[in-house]
Design goal:
This protein has one domain. Helices cover about 15% and strands about 25% of the residues. It is built from 5 helices and 14 strands. It is globular and about 50 Å long. The two termini are about 25 Å apart. About 45% of the residues are buried.
């Protein structure tokens, strides 16, 4: 059974989250309703022409793609409440990535003392125009940017997600696991994860199809931002070949993003 926090309690958690580190964050498991799991999604999942939706360029903001773009994708803004399927890429070319660590440099970048929200604004070095430095200087070599395969996706069923959508591929390295979050963005999307199912029409490396219910980014700005701290971490670009959602999975562990 889902637990829901009162508005007053969750406001306290949001305030605390602004000064917590990854190891000190409040454990928000089991699942709570008034939160958003912070993720990044790339062109392997959301792009113009992608199956199964065949989005147009304007549907996904392709005509205004830019570093630091944080406008809600037009299709999502126009179809709040609609249920759609999204593909999630292939093993080694995943489309969904969860952030498990907020670097201190994101917190220090400003304009506020919460690194996750500075990424979403975006702040200096995180996509905002910056006269003195590269506007993306803080977006490379980010620890624990974790590609999502079948087990991790299944763990997200029932969760709400807020994702920055990229106009290209998100690249990760293994041993240690880290990601490059530089590149042009299409904007933001928010949704609830409804169902995960095997992509039976795909190849033997295709990751699952995810059924989502679209949420309005503008109406959930008061929600807390959390990290999916126990998302499974692939050993390499090919191992494990985790393409079929298991019958049962561990409960997800969410911690407040600092």
């Amino acid at each position: 059974m889902r637990k829901k926090l009162s508005s007053y309690t969750f406001l306290i958690f949001i305030v605390l989250g602004s000064c917590m580190t990854g190891s000190e964050d409040e454990d928000l498991s089991p699942v709570y309703e008034d939160y958003l799991v912070l993720m990044a999604i790339d062109e392997s999942s959301i792009d113009n022409g992608n199956e199964p939706n065949n989005f147009s360029e304007t549907d996904v903001n392709d005509q205004i793609a830019a570093v630091g773009q944080r406008t809600q994708l037009k299709f999502f803004k126009d179809n709040v409440g609609k249920t759609i399927d999204l593909h999630t890429g292939q093993v080694g070319d995943e489309g969904w990535f969860t952030l498990k660590n907020i670097p201190n440099r994101w917190v220090n970048a400003g304009p506020i003392d919460n690194g996750a929200k500075n990424y979403l604004i975006p702040g200096p070095g995180l996509g905002a125009p910056n006269i003195d430095n590269d506007r993306e200087v803080l977006l490379d070599e980010i620890p624990l940017v974790t590609p999502m395969r079948a087990t991790g996706l299944k763990m997200l069923v029932g969760s709400k997600v807020l994702a920055v959508v990229y106009d290209g591929d998100i690249n990760v390295n293994y041993s240690p696991l880290e990601g490059n979050l530089q590149g042009a963005n299409l904007g933001l999307v928010a949704f609830e994860v409804i169902e995960i199912k095997t992509n039976t029409a795909g190849s033997d490396s295709d990751l699952p199809v995810v059924t989502i219910k679209i949420l309005n980014v503008d109406s959930i700005s008061q929600f807390g931002i959390v990290l999916f701290s126990n998302a499974p971490e692939p050993q390499s670009s090919s191992v494990p070949k985790d393409i079929n959602p298991p019958a049962s999975v561990d409960l997800p562990v969410f911690v407040l993003a600092n």
